[in-house]
FMN-binding protein
Amino acid sequence: MIFVRLSPHRLLLSAILALTWLLLSVPLPAAAQTVLAQLLPDQIASDLVPGAEGFGPLREDLAVAPVLKGGETVAWAFVTSDFVGTTGYSGKPIHTLVAVDPDGRVAGVRLVKHSEPIVLIGIPEAKVRTLVEGYQGLDLVAEAQSGGTTHEVDIISGATVTVMVIDDSIVRSGLKVARALGLGGLAPEAAATGPRYEIDTTAQAPADWATMEGDGTLRRLSLDVGQVNEAFAANPDPRAAQRALTEPPETTFIDMQVALVSVPAIGRAILGEAADQNLRGWLAEGDQAIAVFGDGLYSFKGSGYVRGGIFDRIVLIQDDVSVRFRDRDHRRINSVAAEGAPDFAEMDLFRIPAGTGFDPTKPFRIQLLVQREVGPIDKVFQTFDLGYDLPPQYLRQVAAPAPAPVPEAVPAAAAPAAEESQAQAELWKRIWLDSQVKIAVLGIMLLVLTGVFFFQHYAVRNERRFYAFRMIYLAVTLIVLGWMFNAQLSVVNIMALTGSVVTGFSWQAFLLDPLTFILWFAVAAALLFWGRGAYCGWLCPFGALQELTNQVARKLRIPQWTLPWGLHERLWPIKYMIFLGLFGVSLASVEQAERLAEVEPFKTAIILNFVRAWPFVAYAVALLVAGLFVERFYCRYLCPLGAALAIPARIRMFDWLKRYHECGNPCQICAHECPVQAIHPTGEINPNECVNCLHCQVLYHSPKVCPVVIKKMKRRDKLAASAVPDLGRPPAGHPNAARITEPST
């Protein structure tokens, strides 16, 4: 067998050509079809409806399939995503399989497919599946009569948005199917026979804020602390009353006002002419918008939308239509033009996209979700409603149109790609604007680290100062980048990138998380210059946690174990095998690979600050304890992310770490003192294992430790001493040299 050694440039070219071939060879996706058609073949009827024997053929006019028992149809099965939007935190649909019986009751329900980070954030998926299956028996007829409010939503702390999206999708899609099939006596909504109304674009703008409050243009929900405490006291969970707010009862908990600013007269009155024109440019044809103002102790926005993109504290409800707002449907209001407007802590616009079924001429309500912490990760919830009915002065009567046929269910995935792309672009731009401070902090950290690497000759001259600098930098990485910003890269990011390349790459999907995007670009550049160590040794929060805890262990004189070189070298490949295993699984199922990626303790130790189920915490703590005795134990032997970065790091174009000819033969000081044993006994530094801590460079310049430097210093001192003349005797050849005699005794 002949081995050919390729230069880094040829390796890079080969990788690019291989990637190009991969992209060209990937087959194009098949034509769009209903989600039910894709998922039903893998489902068992008896798991959905007890006693069922199978599924019948899918109907051609509606994305439903009969559930058969004894040859008769006992229910109709469908997937929620075929009828309503089910996008959750992950930005992908949550597919729930539902069966509705002839009486309009939910005969069975199962969560069949999702990309939610439920498992990743530590909530057992079985808990969510049990909650979903609890919708069996839900009376859709009663829900239709009440506008979808007869049932209580059992919200799981930490998965608020996920549960609310599932609840909303089950009820709304169930009602659509029940009406379309006439189940439980429900029938398709016929066109109204009475007077119909539309927005009067010629209506006059109200005079001031007080006028709008008086005539109903603005509607208000005002709650004080006493009212909220009273509501939580009635909660079935006794902990809710025990955690009552301690402020005086009359303290304003929230004062929230709402106006339908897509009505031109209202928009001009509240926003002013210029801002109202900007609003018109933001709204597409058929879109509506509301303005929400808030003050008091409680925020109607919260902070969950920053990470998840969904505002989980407010939802718009109209009959069986519910609209949950995402970042792409949100804008801030900078100022209010109406005279006499109060000062609000929060002023925001929320867009209601066309196609949701919302009718601005009909009454609707804004439901506010109030949460109360009752434990480290547990919360209880109460809802309060703000009703809104557009005043008649903004409406005008129109003739009723001829009845239209009932529209067929259209898969949610059939939305125009251009509209989705535009919405996603608006979302990531908004997220970047909201993350300016975080981006600036990360930019400064990257700039400082780049300076250290480029001028490492000067940075490592003073050993004590460099040690202090490194410890401070690692502390900032852990506390700020990790625990505060949650900017922890993961092997899951690599698997997501690979999946995106195969299924259709989109930059916008990766721009939704600015810190992760910037870090990955920085890592890509660093791989060409310094290898994987720039991230692993300096910017990885969990790596920083390991090193800082090990330094504390050293101060406490905990013994440090140095594994024999032969064993150490044989443990290296474990992390590569873990990575390749995860990568292989991701090609078949990204969801399964994400579950297996729990081999990374990053989510437990960094994202969730150890507030998680005990097995995850025990695993992360065990790795940290091992790191007290073997520095960076996890980084050395188990980290799949480090392995993934080490593979392309082989193409790095520069070698910045200096070595002497004597390194390794005979000197072994650097090899013995390398914190991660990345230096071979023969003196070579293994770039796949090096974390660029620069400790070897500190030793390289040390006049106290490095034998080569010590030898040079001694030679220099000897030459300097020999060059200094004897001040007591003139040099040879001096005229007075002969006159100098030895002193007499």
Remarks:
- DSSP finds 31 helices and 16 strands in the chain.
- The first helix runs from residue 8 to 25.
